Amino acid sequence: MKRCDGNVRIMIFARYPTPGKAKTRLIPALGPERATQLHRRMTEHAVTVAREARKAMRKRCRVDITVWYTGAPGKRFRAWLGTDIHYSSQSSGDLGVRMQGAFKRTFEAGAVAGILMGSDLPNLTSAILLQAIEGLGEKDIVLGRAVDGGYYLIGMKALNPALFEAKDWGTDRVHGQTHLTITRCGWTLSELPPLQDVDRPEDLASLRTDPRFEDVFTGRSVISIVIPTLNEAADIGLLLERLLRAEAVECIVADGGSGDDTCRIAAQKGAMVLDVSGGRAAQQNVGAAKAKGRLLLFLHADTLPPDGYADRIRQALSRPSIVAGAFRFKTDGAGAGMRWVERITNLRSMVLQWPYGDQGLFMEARVFQEMGGFAPLPIMEDFELVRRLRSRGTVVTLPHAAVTSARRWQRLGVLETTMINQAMIAGFFCGLPIQRLQRLYRPRESRRQPREHPLHREKEKGAGV
Fold first, then answer.
1. Taking the CB of residue 138, how many other CB atoms lie within 10 A of it?
2. What's the chain's Rg over C-alpha atoms?
3. For residues 131 and 458, which has the higher predicted lDDT (pLDDT)?
4. How confident is the model at residue 206 (pLDDT cuts 50, 70, 90)?
5. Architecture of domain 7-209
6. β partners of residue 225
7. CA dihedral 138, 141, 147, 152 (to 10 degrees)
8. Cα–Cα distance, 20 to 36 (Å, whole number)
9. In CATH, what is the architecture of 220-402?
10. What's residue 361's pLDDT?
11. What is the DSSP letter of 233?
12. Residues linked to residue 396 through DSSP beta bridges, in sequence order
């Protein structure tokens, strides 16, 4: 399609992934949970492909994306699929009525062309969507035939109600009936390559070896743990040993230029080691870019996640409306002052949905990428990212505690450390330059002494590592 004055609208029909209500014909083969998980993955793929097509067309034509949803309120879809696309509720009625309604509202909103597709197309590519957009530059209708006899995509430049009338929806006759309607009405047609949609157990064979859907069949998503380090040789080995006891995890140590044996020890323990300059935000962004896991956990080197941390993360992120999470905050320090800090921190984390990096932040890699990762800030990069995540959806705090070293409070005192932290938060909200906040933070760091990792305290108490 050549440059156009109006916008092309890509429309995706999607159902919220609720077990027992999504991909019900696959339940005998996969069970309700995994059938829903497959539906979720395919819908995410459809949205990703639409975004890629939108980006590819940005200099030639404005392309908008609308998810036409059913099964849950729109805010849950926004949390699940992102805030850079539009959402509209499907009308009631059979499939033809709902599709016609979507096109009608799209053209009433001023679109010059509309393309409607399903969300169960693992082999759909942005190239096919671009071909559909190009096809509408020359023809009246664009149609993508599904292998099972239906169609996976239909596009047009004006509402044509006859396309949605007198069709045997859900059968292998739909494509033929639609093709006949197009011929009888004298419309020109651009046909797309046929694709396999996934509706029945026999459609699953090609997906079992596809790494994009590996967790559907194994039942366990890989977690990539990104640990930014700087001179952590005393502790990194013990921490990695503990982390790697969990199944289906990988550890990535993003080192900021250690002068000790941090990198050698980390590599020896089985972690991927990266040399990254530019501060903790850059270290974590580079680590995430190298990650193979579907899920990410950003963990400080002096923070110890709870037993069973990996499965707890997987369970929390199995809910599409949960965009991110962290563990309950706890330190290895003693005294009433530290207990007060923990209570206030956990109250903020749970009520305001505002955890910090020393609680272990976790989210899907997809969500991290869509949010643009950590901002390039010298400090408070975790605070800023969580602020953006909260605007998308729920940030959950799990009841299980991650234990972090209390030495920074013990070094300056609970009151002074807390006052500095609160002053930095207030300054951030007031828009103070990050360099001024960094100068406020730096005196505390300049008094840094060798810290004691929680793992060492466990060993002293006789607990296993």
1. 10
2. 26
3. 131
4. confident
5. Alpha-Beta Complex (3.90)
6. 251, 297
7. 110
8. 7
9. Alpha-Beta Complex (3.90)
10. 98
11. T
12. 325
How many C-beta neighbours within 10 Å does residue 287 have?
24
DSSP string computed for 211-261 = GGGHHHHHS---EEEEEEESS-TTTHHHHHHHHTTSSSEEEEEEES--SSS
pLDDT at 464: 35
Residue at 281: amino acid letter: A
Please choose, from the candidates 160, 161, 178, the residue with its C-alpha nearest in 3D space to the C-alpha of residue 169. Answer: 178
- What are the structure tokens assigned to 176, written together? 């033929």
Start-to-end Cα distance in the chain: 62
pTM over 0.70: yes
Q: How far is CA 295 from CA 26, 111, 137, 325, 404, in A?
A: 25, 37, 40, 11, 22
Domain with CATH 3.90.550.10 in the chain: 7-209, 220-402
* Structure token digits, residue 245: 């006891």
And the tokens for 384? Answer: 């800023």
d(CA 428, CA 26): 49
Q: What's the pLDDT tens digit per position in 70-109? A: 999 999 999 999 999 999 999 999 999 999 999 999 999 9
Which tokens hold the place of 53? Answer: 């097509």
* Residue 320 and residue 40 in contact, taking contact as beta carbons nearer than 8 Å: yes
User: What's the order of all strands across the beta sheet hosting 394-404?
Assistant: 272-275, 249-255, 223-229, 295-298, 361-364, 322-331, 394-404, 303-304
Write the DSSP assignment of 363-414 as a string of letters.
EEHHHHHHTTSS-S-SS-HHHHHHHHHHHHSEEEEEEEEEEE--HHHHHH-H
Q: Is the pLDDT of residue 440 over 80?
A: no
Q: In 58-163, which ranges are continuous DSSP H helix? A: 74-81, 95-108, 126-136
Label residue 56 by pLDDT band (50, 70, 90).
very high
